[in-house]
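seq as requested:
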Amino acid sequence: MPTVEIFEKYIKSRIWTKNYDEGVPPEVEIRPAPLFTYLDRQTSENGGRTAYIYFNNKVSFKTVGEHSDRVATALKEWGIDKGSTVAIYLPNTPAFPVIYYAALKLGAVVTPMNPLYTPREIAWQAKDAGARVIFAADVLYKNVEEAAKMYQFDRVVVVEVTEYMPSFIKPLAKMKLKPPKIQYTGRVVPYRDLLKYAPTSYRANVDPTQDLAAFMYTGGTTGLPKGAEITHANISANLQQLKPLYDAVKRKRGLNTLVMMGLLPWYHIYGQVAVMHYGIFDGATVVVMPRPDIEQLMKLVQRHKAHVLHGVPTLYNMINNHPKARQFNLRSLAFCISGAAPLPVEVAKKFEELTGAVLREGYGLTETAVVTHVNPLYGKAKAGSIGLPIPSTYAAVADPDKPELLPPNQVGEIVISGPQVFKGYHNRPEENAQAFFQCCGLRWFRTGDMGYMDEEGYFYVVDRKKDMIKYKGYSVFSREIEEVLYQHTCVKEAAVIGVPHPEAGEIPKAFIVLKDECKGKVTAEDIIKWTEDKLAHYKKPRTVEFRDELPKSAVGKILKRELKAEELKKIQASAAKA
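struct tokens:
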């Protein structure tokens, strides 16, 4: 079937919309807007409403807006303006959106960093994004201090994790966290000093369709992390696309406002858009959790009668299997979404029985800021499917090597076209040439995921085109691990693959050929320990196997697929014996 015919019959007609929940439209009227206008609206219209609950301390939208204006004044005084980049190296805390929106008000671009990053990784991203100021948690300051020896920041702002906690628990929290003693200078300043500045009413002249809100780092289609250029309009559109889904939940439960769990990390696009930005957009209350703790999560859901939880399959599985799960009342939960990895049918079934909530699998990428697919909340949800494209989104399956669309039930590369699709990778013209193609009058983004669409418009992911490892929902790029391994004086060759693991999803395994002079002198444990200060803990290889040689193609390329096949055979043989 020709591409144009496939497009007209299945894609342009959006065959999937027939299975939408009642009240969810095929199209929403997208009104691109600077993101800071949403906070300004909440500050003026719902200023007294609780925006965040942090260790039981309630932070109002008025406070978030005012503090954001004070931080913006300081940043402006330091020369941060339109096009400047501000880095955020924090766990989830109310300071995160305060800082984020302060930067946006000036037209600056935010680049969030994983709190697990090592100094090397901080410096690398800061340099690639051109970050001039970094906001860092006090407990993580030593990493930034080391990173500053490799990359020069104009300012380092230290945020106490206890900021916005109730005053009576701050001393106890500080004793437990043991933040380092910090020597404040002209360049290193405490966050609380920024809150002494007068609030500004200044707002940059932002074109939401062209101006960037964030550099979000991802693996792209290959190799080292790349900065995805996310515009205000990308995020703004996705919030408007998600609203009909959240509204369906409100109607079903008779709710005026939502209470959302802020467990997913906000440095990642999923938690950032679906929870942090959406909470501001829709005036929801977010219960902020700086670190994952399953028992604490259940306590907070019960205490605050939370309605929405976003997570990954391992989170829901951990709740199901927690010994105290049935001691908590989790029946307030209405809408739960699982992303980042396939959701096992049994996990979803057990969680729904435990909570009475609707748990659905969804799909999205950093490059699509963030959601593109979700299963119907109250209609037909198909096990193993990532669901239906959300309103105002085109999705299709394309030939991985040609700009041609494929018919239903034929496996190819999942491609997306919609207002949430990012601008492109920062300073990566070759990557951009590979990532996009024009077809049928639309600009399509290649997701790097192989899958298919059935006759009803439900999509399925069958494999990842990207050479990427999914460890507990984290994206781990094998090439980055390999580059670190190659720095070891004894490593001659290295290849890293993801090996299936029952709890983690996949674990990084390194295959290494040692130099002759090191054979018998270096152990697998030595290699793993050596990587600990060079890679975030979730990236380090969990196992190392030494080989005399690695399988290679005729042109000398290491064949990882052969290593993967060997590992799968081992697992199958082990399972057969059990």
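Residues 468-577 form a domain with the GMP Synthetase; Chain A, domain 3 fold (CATH 3.30.300.30).
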